[in-house]
Design goal:
The structure holds two protein chains of two kinds. Chain A has strands at 2-5, 10-14, 19-21, 24-27, 32-38, 44-50, 56-58, 64-68, 73-78, 87-94, 103-104, 108-113. By secondary structure, chain A is mainly beta. In chain A, the strands form three sheets. In chain A, strands 2, 5, 6, 10, 11 and 12 form a six-stranded mixed sheet that branches. In chain A, strands 3-9-8-7 form a four-stranded antiparallel sheet, with no helix packed on it. The N and C termini of chain A lie far apart (41 Å). In chain B, strands 2, 4, 5, 6, 9, 10 and 11 form a seven-stranded mixed sheet that branches. In chain B, strands 1-3-8-7 form a four-stranded antiparallel sheet, with no helix packed on it. Chain B is globular and about 40 Å long. The termini of chain B are far apart. Classes of the chains: A mainly beta, B mainly beta. Chain A binds chain B through residues 32, 34, 36, 41-46, 49, 51, 90, 92, 94, 96, 99-102, 104-107, 109, and chain B through 4, 6, 32, 34, 41-44, 46, 49, 91, 93, 95, 97, 100-109, 111.
Chain lengths: 114, 115
């Protein structure tokens, strides 16, 4: 079984500030991990994914995430927030060798203040 | 690459009618397609998973006679909401996967409003 916990349903930052969105996972096998972004009234877009290569993964729009096995975490970061980053962010996990059906976190709404 | 389209983007219908939503992978063949439902300010709720040429696998609590899924080809899946009722109003999102990691490529979603 696998699960994902996203701490904080809302994260508020000022434009130019560091963005940190937290994701912790639970998986019985080494997981594949994903971050997706959803803008209002749109589908989800893949930001980045970890599939057992480098633990620091760089994605689109300046985002990156680091897989930390010891902490079972895959937090998403961006050094400097932009107004256009305001959106809903979802962390997801799949288990290699399983059905590859992802389990999604509940989402974190990123609010960016000018 | 990995573009998924969904049609229509929004639909308004009367209670009791059926609505068909199409999901297409435009530039790749999808081994698996997924249908989700999303309520306002909430996460995705997986409704069913489908593979080309086989019956869809529905999640617990999802009525398969209510939400008919057909996966006719490696690039097309359809979701038909039969005899729609106001409680079926929601945002429906499809996705397609083509790799063994389960990376999801999402369509833009269909907003259904049943009057």
């Amino acid at each position: 079984a696998q699960s994902v916990t996203q701490l904080g349903s809302h994260v508020s930052v000022s434009e130019g500030a560091l963005v940190l969105l937290r994701c912790n996972y639970s998986s019985s096998v080494p997981p594949y991990l994903f971050w997706y972004v959803q803008y209002p009234n749109q589908g989800l877009q893949l930001l980045l994914k970890y599939t057992s290569a480098a633990t620091l993964v760089k994605g689109i729009n300046g985002f990156e995430a680091e897989f930390k096995k010891s902490e079972t975490s895959f937090h998403l970061t961006k050094p400097s927030a932009h107004m256009s980053d305001a959106a809903e962010y979802f962390c997801a996990v799949t288990a290699p060798g399983g059905s590859y059906i992802p389990t999604f976190g509940r989402g974190t709404s990123l609010i960016v203040h000018p | 690459g990995a573009v998924v389209s969904q049609h229509p983007s929004w639909v308004i219908c009367k209670s009791g009618t059926s609505v068909k939503i199409e999901c297409r992978s435009l530039d790749f063949q999808a081994t698996t397609m997924f249908w989700y439902r999303q309520f306002p300010k909430q996460s995705l709720m997986l409704m069913a998973t489908s593979n080309e040429g086989s019956k869809a696998t529905y999640e617990q609590g999802v009525e398969k006679d209510k939400f008919l899924i057909n996966h006719a080809s490696l690039t097309l899946s359809t979701l038909t909401v039969t005899s729609a009722h106001p409680e079926d109003s929601s945002f429906y999102i499809c996705s397609a996967s083509r790799d063994r990691a389960g990376t999801q490529y999402f369509g833009p979603g269909t907003r259904l409003l049943v009057l």
